[in-house]
Design brief:
32% helix, alpha+beta, single chain, Aminopeptidase
Length: 159
């Protein structure tokens, strides 16, 4: 999976999906007291690797994860500055809530936060749905980035 680059200085000022969805869904950074709840949700929905990176985001100040919540249920998340500084990811939306603009809204929050921190560019690490990132905020594939930072990553511990 390749990495992608986003020009943060070209981000739009607003995100219509975020504005519309915010009428019924809460978007925010989780509280430290919610760490185990968020980590467990990410682990159950997306696996151990993503949970490990989200866990790291709780050691940052401010916490570098955004979550979408409706009726006390997590619908999705976006994390940055976890695997590496200036890297966005992981991010994901619960399968039943995809294709509704949640991913774009969460991505906008994370990228905008990175821009406010002073980054001019953001690297999206190990991209799966490249078309989504390209269409959403004009992300570009970084040539030669496959397998990138995850080359040689442990997938399990031998018994």
């Amino acid at each position: 999976m390749k990495d992608m680059l986003v020009k943060l200085y070209n981000l739009p000022k607003n995100c219509k999906e975020l504005e519309e969805l915010s009428k019924t869904i809460s978007f925010r950074r989780p509280l430290a007291a919610e760490k185990s709840i968020v980590n467990n949700w990410v682990k159950n929905e997306f696996g151990d690797g993503w949970e490990s990176e989200v866990d790291v985001s709780f050691s940052r100040k401010p916490i570098t994860t955004f979550i979408a919540i409706q009726n006390d249920q997590i619908l999705g998340f976006a994390t940055y500055d976890a695997a590496y500084l200036n890297f966005l990811g992981p991010m994901g939306v619960k399968k039943s809530n995809r294709k509704k603009g949640l991913g774009k809204a969460l991505l906008f929050l994370a990228l905008n936060s990175m821009k406010e921190m002073g980054y001019a560019y953001a690297i999206i690490g190990g991209v799966g749905p490249a078309e989504f990132y390209e269409k959403t905020f004009d992300a570009k594939i970084i040539d030669g980035s496959d397998p990138g930072i995850y080359k040689g990553i442990l997938s399990h511990v031998p018994v």
